Amino acid sequence: xxxxARRLGLRVGPSxxxxxxxxxxxxxxxxxGTQEHYSNFGYVMLGLVAEKAGASxxxxxxxxxxxxxxxxxxxxxxxxxxxxxxxxxxASMISPAPA
Length: 99
Hints:
- This protein is an alpha+beta fold.
- It has one domain (about 1-95).
- Helix content is about 40%, strand content about 10%.
- It contains 4 helices and 2 strands, in the order ααααββ.
- It has helices spanning about 1-10, 15-25, 40-55, 60-65; strands at about 70-75, 90-95.
- Strands 1-2 form a two-stranded antiparallel sheet.
- Helix 2 crosses helix 3.
């Protein structure tokens, strides 16, 4: 994160939008289809797209559009630097009491 902030001339940690702007300007590390490397960048982009489409914060969209319909009523996010979409890390499904 510091490298991104420094390269973008930021005085604070980069936001999701800053990270996207930085990554889009980076060259590919290898020819597509020749290697695989895990990256969280897709989740940064997913959060930005979801927030734009849903006009809500990413965590609100996850809670209302994903967790609630699945019956997940308790979950928490990892605290992330300001502007970074936090990841859902733990959820518990609460079954309704038997009738």
